[in-house]
Amino acid sequence: MERFNRAFFRDTWRILSPYWKGKERWSAYGLIAIVVGLTFAMVYLSVRITIWYRGFYDALQHYDEPGFWSDMLTFGWLAALYIFSSVYRTYLREMLEIRWRRWMTRGYLTHWLSLRTYYHMQILSDTTDNPDQRIADDISAFIRGTLQLSLGLLSALVTIGSYIGLLWVLSSRLILPFEGANWTISGYLVWAALIYSVIGTLLITHIGRPLIGLNFNQQRYDADFRFGLVRVRENPESIALYGGEEHEHRNLMERFTQIFGNYWRIMVRTKLLNWFSSGYAQIAIVFPFLVVAPSYFLAHLGMGVIIEVSSAFAGVQGGLSYIVTSYAELAAWHAVVDRLAGFTQHIEETRKRAPGAGHIRHTDDGPLLHVEHLTLQAPDGRPLLTNLSLRVPPGDSLLLTGPSGSGKSTFLRAVAGIWPFGDGKIERPPRQESLFLPQKPYLPLGSLREILLYPHGAKDTSTETLANALRAVKLDRLIPSLDDERQWSLILSLGEQQRLAFARILLQRPRWIYMDEATSALDEGAEEELYVLLRRELPDSTVISVGHRSTLLQYHRTRLDLNGLGGWTFAPPQVRAAP
Questions:
Q1: CATH number corresponding to 6-353
Q2: Does residue 163 surpass a pLDDT of 90?
Q3: N or C terminus of the chain: which is more exposed, having fewer CB within 10 Å?
Q4: Chosen CATH of 360-571 out of 3.40.50.300, 3.65.10.10, 3.30.1490.150, 3.30.420.40
């Protein structure tokens, strides 16, 4: 098993060990101890049932009716205890599984969302595909596979230890006729089970090894296809207006073709695996009878001993054949570990390269916005801004202009602390006093009330206050729908969404407002109404805007013009006279 190497187990330990060292470790240790104890109990009861076989079948063979009913009573309480242990072993294992998943999901979400790692993983051209699937599906599959396989391995080892002594003793009762003499071989049944299992393990490993890579790819292809479907669901209007159905259909079928082709390869490999494992399992049923047949036909063994030998042999052989019977699950689990390990590594690498670990230095306790010697680059190294220094005092207003791609929006990203490519120092007011408005507002899932209060609005804001904000931005018609949960990003036009963003400003009343073409979808009259409203309702707030329209100049005291080559100039706004 070449790929189950030291690096793999090191990655596995890095993923699972934090939970067993964290705050929930004692309850986890308690649950796993009970589950392990129940596993031991189930193995012990299996051994007792195996020993029970001898007396039961001997009673049948000798027509011993009292012995028969006595053995049936014994089986009743053994079976009841086994059922109880099995039910609670599964129940407590699932309890541990969901608690562990909750802990890991919280941890991965924290690392993915904090320091805006989710954003930097995109702009840094990270190779992690579908982080949503890693968190939603792979964590669950990892925990479930870890518990099932580790407990299965423990059960196999305990089973081997419990049955091997019994099988060794039973071996002494076997007599093998050979060349006219009767031979007794110490541990004959144990050696037979060991040889049978080792041969099976070697063959199954050779046949099943390609499933590791195939399962890894299958999870990725499934996630890519699901992501494509989500994109269509989230952008139906744009696709419909473009008439892009044929393109989307072709793109989705190309993604599904990858699923189909890879799954077909999994099917072929699994078929080979099943041919061998099924044959291996079927031969294992009769193999112990073949081993003991010579002694039986010499009349040295009774039927009860034959059944006991068969059951004990099956226990040892089954434990030794753990890899054979679990290889498909092991391959799938290996693929999940690889995906989670890669995701974890990419998060760590991205956080090292994120702002704060880079060259743009930020402080968040300044009374004003103070930029010193700021230089920004595009991800490909193209210069956007070179050696800019500026001071924006409270209550001032600044308009950033310039051709598309000149770095206007990137400047706001740098001020927000999310752009990693650059150098310099940015002193800014506290983040809780600021609100950034992108060109396309983000409308989270939930009711319209929750959308208006996103991200830092007071949860106890009255309905009347929300209604007044909607009236102020000319969205009166939405007041009756405040508590409706709909896909508002599809229902509202971009212009209405931008009006909604201004309503957020009125509700959250930030002292510093950063707007990235936040009125681009509105006509000039509506744009003027919103800027006048902003100045009237928040006269002391600082406004920094990005825009292309010359009509924006009249709402700002200073203009910063970027030329797209890294250069920049300051100028007072050139307000055009009204016709």
A1: 1.20.1560.10
A2: no
A3: C
A4: 3.40.50.300
